[in-house]
Design brief:
The protein has 3 helices and 4 strands; from the N terminus they run βαββααβ. The protein is α+β, with helices and mostly antiparallel strands.
């Protein structure tokens, strides 16, 4: 894993249960599409509207292939539709990180 996609979500704080359901759906869909799911992280203490996801890839090209697969994967498409319908994700930010220490 050379590249980690870090996704920061701003959530509707009253719809965190829906985001948790959304995150759990990715447990199978992300690996099936070629990503190495490190994890989804929900607010526990402090800020109640921010969540994070970390997904690993060998290269940025592998990430692009993964994104293309997500668009056609049935569970992925259904999960994206669920998020759009329920509007629990207000904003999404995406950064690409590289590990410098273990």
């Amino acid at each position: 894993m050379n590249v980690v996609c870090h996704i920061r979500y701003e959530l509707d704080p009253f719809k965190r249960d829906q985001f948790e359901q959304y995150a759990k759906t990715w447990l199978t869909a992300i690996p099936q599409c070629g990503g190495a799911l490190i994890g989804y992280f929900m607010p526990n203490e402090g800020t109640n509207f921010e969540a994070h996801a970390l997904i690993g890839f060998d290269t940025l090209a592998a990430y692009e292939t993964y994104r293309a697969k997500l668009r056609t994967h049935p569970a992925s498409k259904a999960n994206f539709e669920f998020a759009q319908r329920e509007k629990f994700i207000l904003r999404e930010y995406r950064d690409f990180l590289r590990q410098v220490t273990a």
